[in-house]
Sequence to fold (431 residues):
Amino acid sequence: MIKKRFSKPPLALRGMRDILPKEQIYWDKIRKTLPKVAKDFGFKRIDTPLLEQMELFKRTVGEGTDIVEKEMYTFITKGKEKVALRPEFTASIVRAFLENGMDRWPKPVKIYSMGPLFRYERPQEGRYRQHHQLDFEIFGRKDPLVDAQIILVGAYLLKKLGITKRTKILISSIGCLECRKPYIKKLVEYFKNHKSGLCKDCKNRLKKNPLRILDCKEAACEPITNKAPKLIDSLCQECHNHFKKTLSYLEEVNLKYEIDPSLVRGLDYYNRTVFEIVARDKEGNNKYALLGGGRYDGLAEILGGKQIPAIGFGSGIERIVTELMQNQKKEKVKEKKRVFIVGFGELGKKKAFQLFNDLLSSGINLRESLGRDSIKAQLKVADKEKARLALIIGQKEALDETVILRDMQIGSQEIIPRDKILKQVKKMLRK
Fold:
């Protein structure tokens, strides 16, 4: 049966994208740097499923948040389970933390992860419907030193990636539940007096979750939220002291910061310290957050566990890649000198293929294009690959157990016995 053909090639879904080879150099840098940074601070890796129970995010992220109300990819499985594609890491990691008995491990427990997240939102710079994040979490300590440490991890990570010139640490405190009760009353009263100027979503938030209004990005709401009462001015003494100590620890390690009272973060589970590290443009204006997070001491309890103090951050990899590409234009990679294997004729290609396999474990940076028939076409590819040497095997060389070694820089070549080729190649690559 002949299948019906597409009238034209299909396109990726809106908000989804292909990560092409030219961009992979920056992704590789992140993949290599991440475990090194994690090791320096004593973090161990965890990977959680892409699919979770829908209720996990409703309970933790918050009913009144945009993620739950508008942005989650949800569906019902064949087994009638209500599930969601993972929209953020923290809830999944806390679920795994409790399910696997990690709450009984010696404290603090430090874990990190990296992978795709899914949010049905308007695609924007560095943020797609399928995007990728890296994530660091610390469980089991209330000490403000831990708050400063997780911020140091984020700053250190960006430094190791080469993103330091135009970044800024923003920090604030959103207190505890006791702080927020009187503050929310004050906030509701303020917004009721300015209700006519709020967007439709914020009018709904005023009834469900007024704190979310402070996180609104609509231009109409911005002048109203800018003049709203600041939560940081309503902290109880304990939260005030916690915040003050966190700042003093940041100063001890010379991390410059800016207190931003408008910083509330977009999820319901946060308490006390919240922070972002933002990228700035040439004029010094904030472009977007490269990473952000905060403390969430009550989240494990919401999921049925004991109260476990915790703090962490997530970082959008696409935005980091954007910064790497803009700041460095072209990543300079010290790549090993390449050796190109060339084979022509049936027997020559077989022996060249065999030589390629034999040299794989030698540490030599190999390339080939043995699927091409002519020696000319293969050497043309070798030129494009900027190969330092070419190893050529034709019918005669295959029968004689020899290899033609060509210096691609000066064009000279010599015939080397097959059993001496590795030694000679290594000698020439040292030059």
Q: What stands out?
A: The longest helix spans residues 21-41.
